Amino acid sequence: MEVPEEVLSRLGGNEPVGTERARVFRALADLGFEAPAACRRNLTVLHGHLGREENRTRRVMGVILDAAGPDLALSGLAALTGELDGDGLDWLLGLPEGDLAALAEVFSLSGSLGELAVMHAGELRELVGAGGLAGPATAEAGLPEGISIRGAAQEIARRKRTELFRTAALDLAGRIRLEDVLERLSAAAEGAVADAVAAAARNTGVPAESIAVLGMGKLGGGELNYSSDIDLVFVQGEGAAGEKAKDLAEAVVAVLETDTAWGRPARVDLRLRPEGSSGRLVPTARYMRKYYKDRAAAWEYQAMIRSNVIAGSRESGGKLVDWMRELVFGREYPAEVLRSLVLMRRRNEGPQGHVKQRRGGIRDVEFTVQWLQMAEGARHPGVRARSTLDAIGALAAAGALEDGDAETLAGAYRFLRALEHRLQLAQELQTFVLPASESGRRLLARSMGLKDAGALEEAFQRHTDGVAETAGRVMAARGANVPTAAPARRTAEAKEALAGLTQPVRREIERLAEHYGFDADGPAGVLAMPVAREEYIKRLERVLGQEGFPLELVKKGRVGELLRLIGYSGHFYERMLADPEMAEGILGNGTGMEELRAAVKRSIAAAGLEDLARARTRALCRVAAVDLDGSREQDVPGLIAEVNETVIRRLLEAKGLGDRLEVYALGRLGGREGSYGSDADLLFIAPDAAAAGEMEPAVQEMLRFLNREVGLETDERLRPEGSRGVLVPTAEAFTNYVSGGGMKTWEFMAVWGRMRGVSRSAVRMEEVRRRHLLANMPAAEELFAEAARMRRRQAEAYPAEDLKKGRGGTGDIEMLVYALACAGGQSCGNIPEAIARLHAEGTLTLSRAATACSGYVFLSKIERTLRLARPDLPGILPGVEERRGVALAAGYREGRRKSAARLLSEDVDYYRQEVSGLFRAMTSGE
Fold first, then answer.
1. Residue 36 — very low, low, confident or very high, per pLDDT cuts 50/70/90?
2. Which residues partner with 558 through β-bridges?
3. What distance in Å separates the CA atoms of residue 536 and residue 890, rounded to the nearest whole number?
4. In degrees rounded to 5, what are phi and psi of residue 16?
5. Quick one: pLDDT band at residue 406, thresholds 50, 70, 90?
6. Which of 74, 197, 231, 529 is the most exposed place for a label (fewest CB within 10 A)?
7. Do 46 and 81 touch, CB atoms closer than 8 A?
8. pLDDT tens, 465-487?
9. d(Cα 95, Cα 445) in Å, to the nearest integer?
10. Which of these, 453, 432, 568, 543, lies nearest to 872 by C-alpha position?
11. What is the CB-side half-sphere exposure of residue 631 using CA atoms within 13 A?
């Protein structure tokens, strides 16, 4: 495609108006841009960076228009070209057409890698490679002698991210196969582990041969994805001393999990070692042989299929791996053992939109292949391959899998892994759930080479159905005749159950229909974003028809809250499919908020660590039902924060850290304000150096547990020196940092503004910490200037529509209140309460206090309503069709002259203008 002349002719000139503006915008929309106004601005910026040469602009626009997301590709390349000098720009434009197109695809789909390219624009040639993307990667020498743990982590992370960037660009441009992607990502991770072992050995003085490092799971099978944890098992090398081997292994983990400017080198999971998290960190080979021979469960045998030695003592590690794999494959498994594995897999199935865990998803392909390898490995040694695709081919060659079944499994695996990769590339997060929005699915479909969202959903359903049917049939043929018709049977039971509950459920649907203004027998757009009545009833059938669902409570319970939640929130609907007993808390909700708060805290405090994630999800589900009811919504942010804080306290108690380790909540958690998907800003302080060294591994383990097992994302970057600082500073180091001039103005606001003790020792020391911070607080003028600078940077870095980070978002009020409170020698805590206090003291006039409080509460509520549908959604209002669902869920009603979506849009615009005006006036001294 080419840029139309009416567009090119307007570049660099005044903003088009009237019919000319409409013609330009229509031309851009016809090219596939979804936001013509922003597109025209970015196109002008790009044209300016390219020296206002139309030929250059046409060339770059050609690759942008072919990208999966032209809007994102354009804004990304406009930002990148602005960061390059003349030589760098000439180099970029001199790249082969395919390389330039690959970079456009990176910006199109991956926000995090796009940010990486812009942030390191001066090193872009290194990221791409001297010979272009298709050429070999730049040869990297070993790590420098004498490099520290932190320095090693920085260099390893840089190398790994460089390779990830190159791989992603080639992958998104369709220039390498899935097998190549898996191999490159796995090789980069193996290299990171090997470098980490070398750096750890130098820093501890313990020889690298003291341990063997085994790669398990996707790493062992050479099948890593873009955001995989790496499963490692450490084993003592022959002749190594136990404590020395442990010191080395801990140092390796420290290198791999250190935060750097390039991110972490890796996220490490050590739970596949014998006895999991409670087992020895570095067992001996002798112990491992005895454990696997006498005590290992069948699933642990299955996990050994992909084990491989990747670093350290390859000789001793190789001997152990060979022994373990012979143990797995050198036996015939009884039918009941194979059946038990299938039953365990069925119990761990995920919701329908989950690419990995749903029935017929990635995990089912991997499980089926490994299960067949265990069933056939003794008779057919050739099937013992580590990678899934190699194993499928080997099983077919051995006659253990029909050719058609092998094609079904391999085809689905390639499709689903490619889909998983694109989902995860967006922000390099471990996500496996299809986007809820139509625009998100459309972008995903185009990145997969499919026409639209409908084609994506059809392909997804076809592949997963094929896997589910094939897996059930091939396993049943070998005696694992676990019922495969459970969903259909449960749906029939659900319909029967619904028929028996017609009156209470029907009355509630009719009441909701009247309340929200939709036809009870027609589309029910309010209940999702949007969901038709047919889909809504299907959701009800799936939830109510599950084994374990408390049907008896529907007749007498608070069924309206349950029905609203099932309809509006795809996230909590899917959670209820995975845990049918979750509905019991909603149906049994009392009317009092204190009663609910006490019940939620009690359930989490009583949960064992293995049930902590479920207890938290059940608690948030109960809160979400109350939130959608609307009658007690003002209490919801505090209750969400209380759920997360109770989880952290429960974990501190289990780890025995509460009495000595100071743990502080900062940010929204510190202010007792939460939202669905909120992360937890945490600060850790140890009493002395000895305690810090002792506690840091426990803190790292706790954070891994919160992030991976519980699903509560944490952020520790507000510690001294940020990501570069030690995770657990001493009390003396913290005090010196605060008083020694190293602490920046924004840090004073972020820490002082909402610092609140979580652990018992922190509660005791809270006032001491406050006094240190207050004594060194910057002057009021610097606080306001810093607030303005920070918000300006955020507004430039985030979309203008972002309800928090964009201009006029909640971030304006937060920064303003931080500055005002700090200038007055106070912490702010909860924002609305702080605004009321500032008014009572005379710092804010009644008019300004009202603007700040009403704007903050309203915008926070809308952002929370968005995340109630899906916690990972951005804080940006969706398109008009989906916006109606958000508006109705937030309490708007369809008007005679204005729709609910329009009323919501107008209110958002009004409050943002008011908030933005207030922020400008107060930070400029008006």
1. confident
2. none
3. 19
4. -65, 150
5. very high
6. 231
7. yes
8. 999 999 988 988 887 765 443 34
9. 27
10. 432
11. 8
User: How many whole angstroms separate alpha carbon 138 and alpha carbon 120?
Assistant: 17
What type of residue sits at position 763?
V
The residue type of 220 is G
Grouping H, G, I as helix, E, B as strand and the rest as coil, residue 257 is coil
Q: Which of 436-445, 743-752, 814-823, 853-862 has the lowest mean pLDDT?
A: 436-445
239 Cβ contact partners less than 8 Å away, ≥ 6 residues apart: none
Contact 438, 879 (CB under 8 A): yes
The three-point CA angle 548-549-554 to 5° equals 150
Strand order in the sheet with 756-757: 714-715, 680-685, 662-666, 756-757
Amino acid identity of residue 569, one-letter, is S
What's the rounded Cα separation, in Å, for the pair 785 and 800? Answer: 21
Q: Which residue type, as a one-letter code, is found at position 172?
A: L
Short-list 604, 526, 534, CA closest to 569? 526
Residue 660: closest CA among 678, 641, 685: 685
Show the tokens assigned to 890. 């937030």
Residues found in the chain: 926
In the predicted model, is pLDDT for residue 907 greater than 80?
yes
Type of residue at 253: V
Q: Where are the alpha helices (DSSP H) in 31-68?
A: 36-49, 54-65
- How far apart are the two ends of the chain, measured CA to CA in Å? 51
Residues 744, 623: Cα–Cα separation, whole Å: 37
Q: In terms of Cα–Cα distance, which of 764, 769, 766 is closest to 756?
A: 766
Residue type present at position 631: S
Rounded Cα distance between 809 and 790, Å, is 13
Distance separating alpha carbons of residues 901 and 886, to the nearest angstrom: 8
Residue type, 92: L
**pLDDT reading at 114 higher than 80:** yes
Averaged over 552-558, what is the pLDDT? 64
